[in-house]
Amino acid sequence: MMMICLILAVIFCSPVFSEDWKAHVVQNLDALVSSCIVVPCSFSHPKTGLPSSKLRGIWHLKSDHKKIIYYEDQTRVDDNFKGRTRLLGHLGQDNCTLEMVEIKNHDNGPFCFRIELVETAQPTKDMFSFVEECVSFKMLSDTPKPSLTLPEKIIQGRPCSVTCSIRHTCSTHMPKITWSRTSDEITEVHRELHLGIWEVLSTLIFIPDEKDDHNEITCTVAFYGGKTSFTTSKIYVKRAENYNHIIIPAAVGIGTAVIFGVFCILIVKKYKNRIAELQNQEGSMFNRLSRLSRRIRA
Ligand SMILES: *[C@@H]1O[C@H](CO)[C@@H](O)[C@H](O)[C@H]1NC(C)=O
Q1: How many angstroms separate the alpha carbon of residue 23 from the centre of ligand 1?
Q2: Which of 67, 91, 172, 242 could be a cystine partner for 61, CB 3.0 to 4.6 Å?
Q3: CB 162 within 8 A of CB 204
Q4: Alpha carbon of 97 to ligand 1 centroid (Å)
Q5: Is the CB of 89 under 6 A from ligand 1?
Q6: What is the pTM (predicted TM-score) of this model?
Q7: d(CA 298, CA 293)
Q8: Distance of CA 89 from the midpoint of ligand 1 (Å)
Q9: Which domains, and CATH codes, for the chain?
Q10: What is the pLDDT of residues 79-121, one digit of tens each?
């Protein structure tokens, strides 16, 4: 009888230890106190295509699996976490992504995910299989400052683009970036740098004028939960480089040369006519003289 039980147990529990049961959870994430965090999580199991209703996802403290931080049934959730956790992913799509809001500085974990397979035929004796993967939070008590990048040269009258970026781990409530200087052109890009680590990048394009010189530009980040931080940088506007000191003398020079050239041509033309006239006159004189000499010889 014992043998049969053992064999049955091995048969039933084998999926538990088979490699098909896998969970993928980001192991380390920065968490900003008072803000939110989204932990990407996915899993695979041999019985693919099960509806969410047959699966039960649980997040609990690694140190004590009875300290549940997420469960469908709120009453089983530890008081410290009640109402602060939410499963974003659909278990039916093998997605166990967790959101935690109002982060407290003792929420560092590690927190582990566990999946249970519910056999509805025996509702009382839940057949379960599980995998465990845990995440730890590094608590940020100081609000991170955004990084502000200005172009090397800011030239008066020429469009200039300034960027401000911030990393975060709260993809459901992205931090908001605002600028101290007004502009018609502000663009914002959100991207995932690594699994669970996001970046908001705001680009402001403005045309600097004299008033901007020696002025400050500030970019402020407002995190979900109310924390803010900012970075300030001074702007040095360069006068637009102009080439008038080269162009004007060159133009004057070329103009003078052209006028002089035309003048010379006119003079040469005029004198050519005169010379031709003179030559003609000389010619007729010579003719007359030669005729005269012939007559004399005759
Ligand atoms: C899991 O669900 C979250 C929240 O809906 C989503 O952002 C994420 O892309 C999903 N992950 C996968 C691997 O589908």
Answers
A1: 14
A2: 67
A3: yes
A4: 7
A5: yes
A6: 0.70
A7: 8
A8: 6
A9: 17-140 (2.60.40.10), 147-238 (2.60.40.10)
A10: 889 889 999 988 888 888 999 999 998 888 799 888 877 765 5
